[in-house]
Amino acid sequence: MAKDCTYCGTTVTIPDNGALIIRAHSELSRRGVPADEGVHIIPYQNRENLQDILADLLSKGVKEEEWIHLSSGSMAQTFPITIEHLFARLCQPELESLIHQGDFEAHLQPILNMKDSSIFGYEALLRTKGRQVNPGELFDYAARSGLQSMLDQKARRAAVQAKAEHLQPGQHIFINFLPSTIYVPEFCLKHTFQIVEEFSIDPADLVFEVVETENITDVRHLKGILDTYKSSGMRVALDDVGAGYSTIEMLSLLQPDIVKIDRSYINGCAGDPIKQQFLFEVLQRADKLGIDVLAEGIETVEEWNWLQSQGVGYGQGFYIDKPRPVPSKELILP
Q1: How many domains does the chain fold into?
Q2: From CA 289, how far away is CA 82, in angstroms rounded?
């Protein structure tokens, strides 16, 4: 199990004053900090003082990925954190507080069945209540501060809650997830399955999709995550096929239920032979594997009509509707 599983999704408050505990380093020895059995104990008076200490350590060559412990005074009660994660939390405490408090909601963007324009489901997109923070900025901060697992869990909860409050049985909810926050699928996904039970959601209505910003390096691990979702009666989607790691070959390796074609191939596809050739290849491979195809980022009637004529199963984009906290009661396509 990953070394930070202990604090996955757990709110940890940085003591206003206490001590930083770190293994002995030659850099620290030059500072004249006394070490007890190979451990340096550096007291701090407040958060600003702690931030200065970390900056000083980094300037002396201590690596930012180094694990340290923080204590509020009792050495029996400490918690581990990397210098990088701690420094990020100290520099932007307002974002740390926002993630800890979890004041989020999901905005829902419709996904239509392109055969008859009926609603297949909605993608849940995380938004903050009250203070507006760009989702990209929030997830970037979560990665730098070690709060990805917590934010990912709260995003899943907001999505499932939105499904329970706003969608009908049989309407699917697409939920983004970060594979890097799931170390041991059978253990880490228990939180998700508990949320599904809490809100009495049919697992068959849930579609978990690999978040588009994730850089996948361990295909076997991702396959294990997808298989765990599928064995629990949920569907899985591979996002952004055609961009980054999501190549056509991944369809055979991962066997998702749905593939979402990257919006760069949808934009202007009605008049672009090169994009059309790529889309033909995706459709042919998906058809052989029994995988449904979803085109995201549809913005014009020309794109909609062309994709519909080629047999693309599902569509999503501003041409249909933008994300909303409460779905529109009626969608009217021109």
Answers
A1: 2
A2: 43
